[in-house]
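quick q for whoever's on today - can somebody do inverse folding on this one?? i tried earlier but teh output was garbage lol. tokens:
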């Protein structure tokens, strides 16, 4: 069975032990004790008997930090043995340090018990001798017990409280810093997601039209068709550049003289439909939302914009319907397009548009669904119209 080894003593504890031992030896050599040789309590006179308690107490100093309770128990026996010799001041001083260390470094329960025990011993050392001898000098016994035992224990308790308070404050500061960093990361992530949604919604429609019409122009050897496709490509390029410039203006730090771009509203849905028709879609619009909050307007506009972009990229030839209506405290947004295999040129998709639409609905506390319904692909979003339901 492996023998458990005690931790090595701290360097500072070694210096205390060596200093106390050397100081006690010096006092013993010059014959300076705490009591005269003819004192009734002195059972072993001379300088040599007091060396045993002195050496044991020095050994206890080595354990003051690594095993404080053991050091206090052994030290109490040593200081009691010192009472039957001429006494050594170094032994008493080292005992006070062991008492202090037991409260400071020992378990919390032991520190509390030591406080109570030393306090009771001080009271008993004051009251009992005076009650027995009825002389004022008897009160000095309680004073000595208080100085040797209760005072260092109280000092250790005060230092321990300050140390624990400082540690608790440090932990709170670290937790606060961690929470602040977590909030910062979440804010940055949310802002990056918002910027990604805005960039996708602003530019994807124009780039999809450019991709489809450029593919058509390359696949058909008809000058008139190519000219029409190039005209659409130019219009979407110009509009896409304008959208990009507005987005860059929003992202600037405000040092420029640009006016902030107005947020899209539902009044612009008709322009979206006209643009989709210009790109070749057969779109019908039923727009009867009434007055709605600005965040809901922006979300609905972007959902319709992305749905038309997806219809341009993926839908089969046929009619696309856009419907916005107020129902039971929510704005119902529905876009349906023909669903099925597509012949001819089409633009690739990444799925980011569906993710962005779902995020926009979720930020407002609404619902979002997209999927096939028979021969149609339908995008459905229900956006609450109550301002208090909007999530930050």
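ok took a stab at it. sequence:
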């Amino acid at each position: 069975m492996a023998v458990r080894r005690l931790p090595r003593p701290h360097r500072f504890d070694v210096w205390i032990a060596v200093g106390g031992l050397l100081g006690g030896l010096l006092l013993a050599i010059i014959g300076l004790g705490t009591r005269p040789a003819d004192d009734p309590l002195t059972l072993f006179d001379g300088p040599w008997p007091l060396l045993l308690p002195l050496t044991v107490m020095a050994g206890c100093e080595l354990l003051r930090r690594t095993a404080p309770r053991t050091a206090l128990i052994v030290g109490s026996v040593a200081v009691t043995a010192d009472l039957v010799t001429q006494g050594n001041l170094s032994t008493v001083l080292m005992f006070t340090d062991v008492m202090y260390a037991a409260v400071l470094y020992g378990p919390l329960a032991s520190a509390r018990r030591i406080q109570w025990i030393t306090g009771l011993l001080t009271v008993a050392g004051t009251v009992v001798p005076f009650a027995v001898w009825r002389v004022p000098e008897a009160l000095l016994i309680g004073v000595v017990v208080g100085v040797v035992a209760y005072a260092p224990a109280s000092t250790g308790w005060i230092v321990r409280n300050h140390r624990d308070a400082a540690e608790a404050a440090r932990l709170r500061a670290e937790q606060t810093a961690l929470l602040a960093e977590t909030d910062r990361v979440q804010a940055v992530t949310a802002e990056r997601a918002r910027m990604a949604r805005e960039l996708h919604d602003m530019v994807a429609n124009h780039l999809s039209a450019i991709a489809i019409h450029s593919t058509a122009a390359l696949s058909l050897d008809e000058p008139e068709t190519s000219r029409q496709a190039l005209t659409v490509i130019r219009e979407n390029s110009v509009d896409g550049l304008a959208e990009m410039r507005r987005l860059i203006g929003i992202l600037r730090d405000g040092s420029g003289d640009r006016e902030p771009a107005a947020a899209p509203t539902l009044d612009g849905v008709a322009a979206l439909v006209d643009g989709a028709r210009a790109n070749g879609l057969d779109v019908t619009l039923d727009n009867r939302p009434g007055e709605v909050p600005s965040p809901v307007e922006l979300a609905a506009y972007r959902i319709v914009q992305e749905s038309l972009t997806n219809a341009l990229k993926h839908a089969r030839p046929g009619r696309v319907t856009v419907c916005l209506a107020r129902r039971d405290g929510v704005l119902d947004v529905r876009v349906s397009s023909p669903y099925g295999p597509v012949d001819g040129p089409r633009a690739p998709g990444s799925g980011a548009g569906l993710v962005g639409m779902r995020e926009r609905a979720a930020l407002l506390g609404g619902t979002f669904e997209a999927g096939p319904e028979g021969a149609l692909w339908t995008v459905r979003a229900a956006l609450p119209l109550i301002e208090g339901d909007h999530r930050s």
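fwiw Residues 232 and 302 are 22 Å apart (CA to CA). also The first strand starts at residue 282 and ends at 288. so keep that in mind when u check it
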